[in-house]
Amino acid sequence: MFVVLFAVVMGAAHYYVWRRAVRDTTVPGRARRIGTGVVVGLFVLLMAGLSLNVAALAWPGYLWLACAFYLAILFGVLEIPRLLLNRAARRAPVAVGGSPAEQPVAAGGRANGQPVARTDPGRRLFIARSLAVVGGAATAGLVGYGTTQALGDPVVKRVPVTLAKLDPRLSGYRIAVVSDIHLGPLLGRSHTERIVRMINEQQVDLVAIVGDLVDGTVEELGEAAAPLRDLVSTHGAYFVTGNHEYYSGAEPWLKELDRLEVHPLRNERLRVERAGAAFDLAGVNDVTGANFADGPDFARALDGRDSADPVVLLAHQPVQVREAVKHGVDLQLSGHTHGGQMFPFHLAVGLQQPVRSGLATFDGTQVYTSNGAGFWGPPVRVGAPPDITLVELHHNFARR
């Protein structure tokens, strides 16, 4: 159903792009036929890249997806100047005489001796071509910039978080949060090695990978994930499932990650201690797991703990904070949103998730949402650079 819906939406977008970039800028003939063939071919390439998940098709297919997306948006924005320029290009009304058969009738005019406002076809073609160039140039700039953002090093963010229950001896405890790595046909072993290197450089106390590590099976991507065994931290590395793990075969991946010493937290918690002080680290499965008989179980993960100590919860989607609040969670660490990845998708995230990016508070529970270190679909990020976050826990001394 997703592929069918996607094909319908992108088919409509390609038709609109064809109208503005091909039909409006050419006259009937060879150039229009070639342009039409190119647009059809790009649509087929896009669908093949999405369906077959092969790098040779995915790279050009997904890049074109970003181009088609921004072309459609920019051509839509240019509709108003197009309308104004076409109106301005109409010739001044002239009186037309002679017999009705001899009287040309232009759009918006009248014959039989009445004024006729005619548009110069050459000017209309010039306007269409000019706007197509503007839209194409802007798209190339946006996609080019977004590609450098998506494929460059993630930004290392430092986010201090104050927890009222935190023992002062744990103040300064640092958790490296990374999400949405999305190993797959476009991102492989070198991407994992870079993330591991950047985390290890920070000398953190604990590593939290909060879902959507992979887009493929262990057989396909096991070698790409292998560098995770080199993660170094005081108290180890932990993982919770994202929705894409369930699409990729969650059980084999959970076993593989355990083998790599990245320990899955499957609706469970553990005690983290330093210098005689402690907090609880818990993890719940992604909500998508409910469709695979492996959904989140907050009661199992959180009930029965000592409420005097703070609890840090790993949960892939920010929306899970609604349940976290009911169980007295102090801090939830999440991903999933990609920070919107490509503007203006930022605006749509709020329809599904309570937090797009950064730190927020809901009924006493803080939730931090990472932009993620990878990308899904187009290798493009506009307005949402990839990140690795160092969450630093602090005690609220003012409440002592």
UniProtKB/TrEMBL annotation:
A Pfam entry, by short name: Metallophos
Cofactor entry: a divalent metal cation
Record-linked SUPFAM superfamilies: Metallo-dependent phosphatases (SSF56300)
Gene Ontology MF term list: metal ion binding; UDP-2,3-diacylglucosamine hydrolase activity
Spans through the membrane: 6-22, 34-56, 62-81
Family note: Belongs to the metallophosphoesterase superfamily.
Protein name: Calcineurin-like phosphoesterase domain-containing protein
